[in-house]
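Q: Got a minute? One more chain.
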Amino acid sequence: MRFTALLFTPLIGIAIATAGGFVVYGILKATMGIRLSQEEEYNGADLSIHKIKANPDN
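A: Always. Here it is, folded:
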């Protein structure tokens, strides 16, 4: 009894955390999208999202 409780309790916690992560990922993907557009990927995330250049010298 004790061994099974010690074994399954962390596994249940991991399963709940994994399911919650998939739910949050699915909501984010459905509402605002996960990836940048092809043009934004080409320009770079720093310039596309933060409007800053990656290298301060340029």
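A: The radius of gyration is 20 Å.
Q: Perfect, thanks.
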